[in-house]
Amino acid sequence: MSAILRELLRVSEKAAHIARACRQQDALFQLLIEEKKGGDKNKKFAVDFKTLADVLVQEVIKRHVESKFPGLEEKIFGEESNEFTNALGETIVLRLCPTEEEMAELLSKVLNGNQLAAGALAKVVHEDVAFADPALDSVQVAIPQDTLGIWVDPIDSTHQYIQGSADVEPSHGVFPRGLPCVTILIGVYDLHTGLPLMGVVNQPFVAQDPATGRWEGRRYWGLSYMGTNVHSLLPPGSEPQTGRPGPQAEDTGPQAAGAPRFSAVISASERETVRAALARVCGGRVLHAAGAGYKGLCVVQGLVDVYVFSYDTTFKWDSCAPHAILRAMGGGMVDFQGCLARGPASGREWPQLLYHVGNEGASGVDHWANRGGLIAYRSRQQLEAFLGLLAQHLAPADAPAPAPAPADAPADARA
Ligand code: 2IP
Ligand code: CA
Questions:
Q1: Which residues line ligand 1 (CB under 6 A)?
Q2: Phi-psi category of residue 213: left, alpha or beta, with phi > 0 → left and psi -120 to 50 → alpha
Q3: Where does the pLDDT of residue 245 fall: very low under 50, low under 70, confident under 90, or very high at 90 and above?
Q4: Which one of 157, 159, 270 would you pick to mutate in the ligand 1 pocket, going by the greatest count of ligand atoms within 8 A of its CB?
Q5: Which range, 27-36, 239-248, 369-378, is most confident?
Q6: Which ligand lies nearest the alpha carbon of 288?
């Protein structure tokens, strides 16, 4: 049902509009500044502003989906809860209100009476944002609505959002930090198989007009369902691909003789053993970037071949949207440790990240962690060749220990 993807794209643009407004409108920007300073300043608000912006964007996405596809809003999951307690001890459930005035009144309670900010925020929430991508109009795919679940990350890379650096230079096209690393992520998955089907990655801060200071964004989308694969990076006028993805999804990595075959993007927090192995596989072509969604986007854009992360600290809402786009391109996102455990032989089914079941025995956000880390890639051949090299360079003693099996797992799973 490409109508769902169209609406998700449209609401992601509204979300981007809110994210930009919070940086560009003075009353709201002041709240971000206070947050950046940290310390006691924050305590006067019932909720930190970043959480409020996150929750508000998530609610906007939920209510939009509800109005267009009743029932689907129940299947939208994300990190944030929309319940707050303010300084007076009142519990406030942040729901979108039908009018701007009611919205301002509710927001003012969460913002402990800051009416200027509440009014400005209510206004952007109620503004109409039109957006359409004609390339999506030609896509007609019927996916039964009752098989869909949705992961939302309303603002990924919140730290970069608060810091707000606008002048960071990219290295080989990849921003190590700064506002371009902020993304809005909406990923749709199959409730039965757990595989991602559709994804939208909206990058609200791509280019800033030097005269006005205004930011422009970009959006990326992909759909992969029953042999139809279509994404926003296809050249204009291309037909959706059916069956296996076509040549534009194949290995596009640099292959010059003597040059390292692969390039990778990693987190600044990546462990030393994995960094060292990647340095051997990729030579100098290992780049750093903030934001799990942004690093996935770097692979989608072809700026690097793989995004590698060996820890358990990304979550389903971080990966589902870029994963869906990569699947539409002929790639995917697999479990890093699971791949290493299977060995590099080709022709296997690699363990794709799945989105419908949580980690047994884990509570809180860890229930939805991508345990075992991840590798994001654009083509299966590339993944297999990369794994072959990585396994050679990551000595067994260096390899990160597999995550412990849950205590109630069968004995052989714990061996
Ligand atoms: C974070 C954010 C971080 C990322 C982390 C995510 O999400 O994307 O930047 O860490 O994995 O969970 P890193 O940048 O080291 O990859 P959020 O900002 O929404 O908490
Ligand atoms: Ca995130």
A1: 153, 156-158, 267-269, 290-292, 313-315, 318
A2: left
A3: very low
A4: 157
A5: 369-378
A6: 1
Distance CA 330, CA 72 (A): 27
Query: Which of 294, 314, 320, 365 gets mutated to test ligand 1 (max ligand atoms within 8 A of its CB)?
Result: 314
Ligand 1 atom 11: residue of nearest CA: 314
pLDDT at 259 over 70: no
Count Cα neighbours of 156 within 13 Å in the Cβ-side half-sphere. 34
From residue 1, how far is each of 227, 240, 246, 358, 392 by CA, in Å? 14, 14, 22, 26, 43
195-231: b (≥16 Cβ within 10 Å) or e: bbbbbbbbbbbeeeeeeeeebebbbbbbbbbeebbbb
Least confident residue range of 90-99, 102-111, 233-242: 233-242
pLDDT in tens, 5-41: 999 999 999 999 999 988 888 778 777 666 666 554 4
Distance 40 CA to ligand 2 centre (A): 25
Q: How far apart are CA 414 and CA 402, in angstroms?
A: 10
Look up residue 250 and give its two tokens: 């194949």
Q: What pTM, to 2 d.p., does this model score?
A: 0.88
Q: Is 227 helix (H, G, I), strand (E, B) or coil?
A: coil
- Identify whether the C-beta of residue 354 lies closer than 8 Å to the C-beta of residue 363: no
User: Which residues form the catalytic set?
Assistant: 54, 79, 153, 155-156, 158, 318
d(CA 296, CA 316): 13
The C-alpha atoms of residue 107 and residue 117 are separated, in whole angstroms, by 8
Query: Would you call 156 helix, strand, or coil by DSSP?
Result: strand
**Other CB atoms closer than 10 Å to residue 121's CB: what's the count?**
28
| Parallel, antiparallel or unpaired: strands 228-231 and 241-242 | antiparallel
For residues 326-332, average pLDDT: 97
